[in-house]
């Protein structure tokens, strides 16, 4: 990642935001926070852990049933 910053959300902040006002507001709030001086994520000291979490999440999504809405 170099000098960049990373934010990971474990919920959908991209799909049908016009129909999901809570998700749309959450996205706006997160982006505002990330642009502020308060956003100071810590250095990932063990990137292998993050990689395993993201791979696990991907496997869950593939095995999960469709949306209930």
Structural class: mainly alpha
For the sheet with most strands, the description reads:
none
Order of helices and strands: HH
Task: From the alpha carbons, calculate the radius of gyration and give it in angstroms.
Answer: 15 Å
Please tally the helical runs, counting DSSP H or I stretches of 4 or more residues.
2
Mean pLDDT: 83
> Any low-confidence stretches, pLDDT <50, length ≥5?
none
Quaternary structure classification: single chain
Please indicate the percent range of residues in DSSP E strands (runs of 2 or more). Answer: under 5%
How far is it from the N-terminal to the C-terminal residue, by CA?
A: 36 Å
Task: State the total count of DSSP E strands.
Answer: 0
Helix content: 40-55%
Shape: flat
Tag the structure with descriptive keywords.
69 residues; mainly alpha; 2 helices
